[in-house]
Automatic annotation (TrEMBL):
Coiled coil: none annotated. The chain holds residues 439 to 727 of 727 of the full protein. Residues 24-281 form the EAL domain. This is EAL domain-containing protein.
Length: 289
């Protein structure tokens, strides 16, 4: 999979096994430079309350503003970092940039939360809670409560790959006031007993089930089951990939708590997100009037 992506982006590669490794090494070097020269950007995708449609927060999503290739999506460069130390460096950069942005928004009176994706290597850093707390202290010395507005997203499949380590890490985060979510939930094989060991605040129902739930009975059953599971454990649900009003309506009826997807808004750079938020406020005022 990685090699295919690389092959697409690098016309010079023949794509055979011998040449893949150097191509990855080149990409990793480029990413190191990208981090050092401030080429990474964050886009933010809103999450809304399914019932009231109020905006509750955003998910920070990284992009690479490449000098030649333009804006590169994370799927084209994160896989090559998997398991390398640079992956952790990138996550910490995202945390710092995201928290700074959140602090600015809060200071401007926008009551938002922020979800930030972390790779498994970052989640299990022994001093992750301390690092996050330090980042919050630096970005917002006067807003210690900002920490409670952050949620770390961990892939369900990653949490299951090393359940013991993930469970301990999520527990430690919780003890330090940092919430976690299981991302792309439903793609792994979490059973009731596994979930008990992962003290997360949120399950994010994977996009594939949500997208197909209107036409595929099996996917609808999965969405319903995940919402039931979340209710049983007292955790929140976020549906990702909400693309139409029909999806949003049904998810609300099924008891899903939050919605995220292109049907609500695409991920946007900070200024566009601010304009979008202001328009939402305007719409609500019109409804009231
Ligand atoms: P994710 O965390 O599951 O994020 C949701 C992805 O689905 C985003 O893709 C978003 O643009 C896309 N999406 C949202 N709504 C819809 C929809 O209605 N329809 C469709 N077709 N897609 C939708 P994106 O930004 O390309 O990110 C892909 C993945 O890369 C993320 O999936 C996440 O796993 C990873 N990622 C992104 N940023 C970071 C980061 O800062 N750190 C780490 N470790 N991973 C990241
Ligand atoms: Mg995510
Ligand atoms: Mg997801
Ligand atoms: Mg995903």
């Amino acid at each position: 999979y990685r090699a295919k992506r690389l092959g697409k982006n690098r016309a010079c590669m023949a794509g055979d096994g011998v040449e893949r490794a150097p191509a990855q090494a080149v990409l990793i070097e480029e990413l190191r430079t990208a981090l050092a020269t401030d080429q990474l950007r964050l886009h933010y995708q809103p999450k809304i309350c399914a019932r009231t449609r109020r905006v509750l927060g955003v998910e920070a999503l990284v992009r690479w503003q490449h000098p030649v290739r333009g804006l590169v999506p994370p799927g084209d460069f994160l896989p090559v970092l998997q398991g390398t130390p640079l992956e952790v460096t990138l996550d910490l950069w995202v945390l710092r940039a995201g928290v700074r942005q959140l602090a600015q928004w809060r200071a401007a009176g926008r009551e938002l939360g922020m979800s930030i994706n972390v790779s498994p290597g970052t989640l299990v850093l022994p001093d992750l809670p301390a690092a996050v707390a330090e980042i919050v202290r630096e970005a917002a010395p006067l807003q210690p409560q900002l920490l409670g507005g952050i949620e770390l997203e961990v892939l369900e499949t990653a949490a299951l790959a090393d359940l013991g380590a993930a469970s301990r890490a999520i527990q430690t985060c919780a003890e330090h006031g940092i919430s976690c979510a299981l991302d792309d939930f439903g793609t792994g094989y979490s059973s009731l007993s596994y979930l008990r060991r992962l003290p997360v605040r949120t399950l994010k129902i994977d996009r594939s089930f949500v997208s197909n739930m209107l036409g595929d009975r099996g996917d609808l059953d999965i969405v319903r089951a995940v919402i039931g599971l979340a209710e049983a454990f007292g955790v929140d649900t976020v549906a990702e990939g909400v693309e139409t009003a029909a999806h949003a309506r049904l998810l609300d009826e099924l008891g899903c708590s939050q919605l995220q997807g292109f049907g609500i808004a695409r991920p946007m750079a900070a200024p566009a997100l601010e304009a979008w938020l202001d328009r939402q406020d305007g719409l609500r005022l019109e409804q009231v009037a």
